[in-house]
Every structure is written in structure tokens, then in C-alpha cells.
């Protein structure tokens, strides 16, 4: 199944979009092959430094993740090989590497990478009208899944798209959308459910690390979490 260039609502204008646009240009000249075919071709070339799953190929083309260079390089090499223009593959790889470097998060004064803000955003249906909630995609190094800011009666939640959980969610969503059979789509959905279970287990383990005098607060947070989750889900169903 051919993949389309994401709209600006999913991937706003910027360096990452420039990279994805160049990849789609090469993808089109290669005949817009299926993600599985590209993945298989990468595995069959011994000289390439990395392999790539069909889910990751789809995620690259959808702009849902900024891939490792070794994986992007492998995909670019295959697409350049199939391109109707018969380009110089080394030149294409160098050009894509330049775009990939430009799309990386900026570094701050201390040398640490700064978050990539507003990859996409949308407002969550508020459970309380006096507390508007906004969810933003961002990216920063580290194991934090999200960052929460409360100010001026508003709450902003920043999702760390570089966290393994979010990366795998994006890959599985792409896998469901690109799945050629119902069974493969079902497998991806099943793993999505397993990932949610892991989040609950990780939350439980995190609460066990709190001091005894914080245990009651943890229980309160869990209760509020469940209450607001129910509110958001019910509001979503009622739309």
C-alpha cells in the first residue's frame, strides 16, 4: 500500500517536514513501493549497516518519528536504487544526511538537546471547564514519558516522542494502517494493548518507590487519574 505525504496538521512546516518531503520525492520516483517490500530489500543487501522493519519504513514516510540515521540511510539507498532517474546513490545519501542533521533537535548552551516543540498539538476535552488541557508533541533525551506544566489556569502536557513507549506506539499505529491482512492488523492491536498494560505496571512500580508518607497522595492521584480518564473517554464517545 502506497503511503501519502502527511498533511501540515500532522507534520507542520519545518526541518523535519523538509526531510520527509525529500524522502517522499525519492519514494515517488521509486514507484511508491510497499513498506514491506522496502524492508525486505534492505535485509537482502549485505553492505547496509542496519535493518529496518516495515513499520519503521511507514513511520519515516508518515513523519511520525525522526529515525536513526543508519535506518534512514538503508531506506534511502534502496529507494535510490529503484529510482527511475537512476541518480548517484552516494550523492542522494549525502543530501539526505544533510537534511537529517538539520532536523535534529537543537543543542542548548550546556550541550544538551532541547525539546522539539509542537510537532503536533490538539486540545483534550476538559473534565473541568476551568482547567483547559493541551497536549503537545515534543522530543528530548532521557526517560521521561511526559512533562506537565500548570500555569494561569491551564495545563500543558508535553509528550516525549523519543521515549521508547511513544516510539513503539507510533510504529504500531503505522503498522495497523499499513497492514495488508486482518491478522497482521490484529497482531499490532494486540501489542498496543500489551503496551498499555506495561504502562499500568510501571505506574504501580513508580508508586512503590515513594516514601511511606507519600503513599496516601499516590492513592489520591490514582483515584483522580481514573476519574479524569473516565471523563475524557466518555466525552470522546459522546462526540
Write the layout of secondary structure elements.
Layout: H1 15-29, H2 35-44, H3 54-62, H4 69-82, H5 89-102, E1 121-124, E2 133-138, E3 146-151, E4 154-160, H6 164-178, H7 182-208, H8 215-238
Parallel strand pairs: 2-4
Antiparallel strand pairs: 1-2, 3-4
Can you describe what's shown?
- This protein has eight helices and four strands, in the order H-H-H-H-H-E-E-E-E-H-H-H.
- It is an alpha+beta fold.
- A four-stranded mixed beta sheet has the order 1-2-4-3, with no helix packed on it.
- A hairpin with an 8-residue loop joins strand 1 (121-124) and strand 2 (133-138).
- The protein is elongated and about 65 Å long.
- The two termini are 31 Å apart.
- The helix/strand class is alpha+beta
- Strand percent estimate: 5-15%
- Helical residue percent? 40-55%
Question: Which sequence of SSEs, written as H and E, runs from N to C?
Answer: HHHHHEEEEHHH
The general outline is elongated
Distance between the termini: 31 Å
Point out poorly predicted stretches: 107-130
- What is the count of helical runs? 8
The average pLDDT score comes to 80
Radius of gyration: 21 Å
Largest sheet: 4 strands, mixed
> Could you give the count of β-strands?
4
Strand order across the biggest sheet?
Answer: 1-2-4-3
